[in-house]
Design brief:
The structure is a homodimer of 374-residue chains. Chain A has helices spanning 18-25, 32-42, 47-50, 60-68, 90-103, 115-119, 127-142, 160-171, 176-183, 191-201, 206-211, 226-238, 276-284, 294-300, 308-317, 321-333, 338-363, and strands at residues 5-8, 11-14, 28-29, 54-58, 74-78, 107-111, 151-155, 217-222, 245-249. The longest helix of chain A has 26 residues, at 338-363. In chain A, the strands form 2 sheets. Chain A has a 7-stranded mixed sheet. A two-stranded antiparallel sheet of chain A has the order 1-2. By secondary structure, chain A is an alpha/beta fold. The first copy, chain A, has 17 helices and 9 strands.
Chain lengths: 374, 374
């Protein structure tokens, strides 16, 4: 818990103070020097890193040391299905796909279809439901352009013969006390959710097991997921594997203003399967940093930091820094009015979703080649 | 904890008061009426039931109601590998094989190769070690005469894709509080051992899942394992499956006098791979209920209840009640002297082990047909 906000693996409340999380979690900023090094090694710099959406890290200098010595890393990320996939969920996958493209990294994607079933009290969220959502998520992920043969997607309930054996080894190094403190669980928490983090730890060293030698791992994740690896990195180290490096992203704000776009509030959230009309409607209701009337806006200008429309451009939909600057300037100076601002964003989102739907259809019958089972 | 003894899944201390366990665990005696009914249904009565080695039960009347209405049950038992298999470990398997023969029951045998790894602090007991012991156990079990095709043996780490998914469903109904009270765990217990009982619960309803309809299940087990199912039966009931029926056995006493023969004290224990010489030597050192000299024994007689040699005949090596009675009488009246008493038992054990070794060799290359993997 921080001053005025709370952040853990299962809820985020209040306005997150990211500089405070850096201190409290013992992580480091992705500073200009590190950005330059990533750019040098990748031959490019993703706008999410450039803009500080990926703002912090663990052990990325070490990871790049290894890379520069010729030792490739792999990427691990994931999503816990609980509802349809939203654009906020894309952030680690877009980053993973970019890392694959630029560093030639294999990507391991865990879909823990048991996690939200265990944690949520919703009786409709059965294991059958999360399992079926997991396959929708897998299709949405594969459609982002991952390389077949270098991308492994697995559902925990379908890959448990591989995962559980290693999770057992992890779990021996984690006590209930540690879990209680890290996740805010109590004696009334169920024993599945208490054990679960062991399953999430496994893909961070699974490739080392497969290869029979240590392979560096990089995990792009939302800052709320860091807690799993604060716990797991110690256990992984005790097992003799490299601790995974991590890069942390901030949260895509909610459309109506809030610290995090959450899939539990449909009106605050854009789903990948929202129709163009629905997208337009949701964007129309988005909060902006603008004044109450067009006249006042023209006179006083607005605040891009408080404007969801500006932020959505920044996080996902305007990769061009020059154009993004124009949007932010327009908002700040009052030359960009809410109506056209929103129309422009909705068009970009719908363009993206339209393209994504096409990619999904193209890949649907190839999805099996991405998915591991045992 | 009882008066003067302690019994839970991971340790047994003091002289177990079995009538007290019946009260405390809320289980029922296998009384004469139930014995007669088993005999009626089975066409036979195993000496372990007749002699009260299987002394208590849960829901066996219900199970036989079902059976008599034409609804077959299956049998579930198991062993957690931590050292070589001893003759005490045979008790549930001999009973399971008998139930298979007499009731045509399928038998599911779980070998939780993670359990003792999680619970024991011994650094030599790696998961690789328990896994390798699990295969030795599987061969020892299959060699007891189970019917191929009606007997399924699975190691948890090799069958986790089936087991973990169901264990997750069980675990949602079990809190840390429940586990703490039931198993005597603390906040310093590792999260693997906290979760583990969920995995042990699964085979008690697995056949119902496979069949798509409820199938009654009977679990023969040592009374120390009842705790797993005191916890699991509630969870299984909440999931909508039949609670498993259970039959409880008392402990084979240790050779030198103690409540339970334990594989952690090699000299108190006869292993299935002990050589004839070793068996003879261990039996020679066994406690008897006899007087200190042959003269006194002839004069005063001994106490069969305190005599490990009598008890080993009763539990495992003298199926003939008439012969057993002679042995007990001889001990009681002082006509049977320690030397010949022990020689006779050692010969019986060695005869059994010799035959068992032959059965193992005969079945070794067929073992794969018993083992399920995924």
């Amino acid at each position: 818990m921080g001053e005025g906000y709370e952040i853990n693996a299962y809820s985020v409340e209040g306005k997150v103070d990211y500089s405070d999380t850096v201190k409290r979690f013992g992580i480091s900023y992705i500073d200009e020097k590190l950005k330059a090094r990533i750019q040098e090694d990748a031959g490019d710099l993703h706008f999410m890193i450039r803009r500080g959406i990926y703002f912090a890290h663990r052990d990325m200098e070490w990871l790049l040391d290894q890379y520069e010595k010729g030792k490739k890393f792999y990427v691990y990320t994931g999503i816990a299905p609980s509802g349809g996939m939203t654009i906020a969920h894309l952030i680690p996958f877009i980053m993973s796909q970019w890392l694959q493209e630029k560093f030639g990294a294999e990507v391991y994607i865990q879909i823990p279809d048991e996690e939200k079933f265990l944690v949520k009290k919703d009786p409709d969220l059965t294991l059958e439901r999360t399992h079926s959502l997991a396959y929708e998520d897998a299709l949405n992920i594969a459609a982002l352009g991952f390389t077949p043969g270098k991308t492994k997607i697995f559902l925990n309930t379908e890959y448990a013969t591989i995962l559980y054996k290693q999770a057992v080894r992890v779990s021996k190094h984690i006590t209930f006390s540690i879990i209680k403190d890290a996740f805010g669980f109590s004696s009334d928490s169920n024993i599945g959710m208490i054990f679960y983090t062991s399953m999430q730890a496994v893909p961070a060293f699974l490739k080392s097991i497969e290869e029979g030698e240590n392979v560096p791992c990089l995990i792009p994740l939302g800052i709320d997921q860091d807690v799993h690896f604060r716990v797991a990195r110690n256990a992984i180290d005790k097992l003799g594997y490299y601790k995974p490096a991590i890069m942390h992203s901030t949260f895509l704000p909610s459309l109506k203003g809030g610290p995090k776009m959450s899939s539990s509030d449909p009106q605050n959230t854009i789903y990948l399967d929202d129709s163009p009309d629905v997208v337009q409607k949701k964007v129309n209701q988005a909060i902006t940093g603008q004044q109450s009337t067009a006249e006042l806006q023209k006179k006083l200008g607005g605040d891009p930091d408080k404007c969801a429309v500006c932020q959505y451009n920044k996080y996902l939909f305007e990769p061009d820094d020059k154009k993004l600057k124009e949007i932010f300037e327009g908002e700040r100076k009052g030359t960009l009015l809410a109506g056209e601002h929103k129309k422009d964003l909705a068009a970009k989102i719908n363009g993206f979703l339209e393209n994504h739907r096409k990619n999904k259809e193209r890949i649907r019958n190839k999805l099996d080649s991405f998915i591991l089972k045992c």
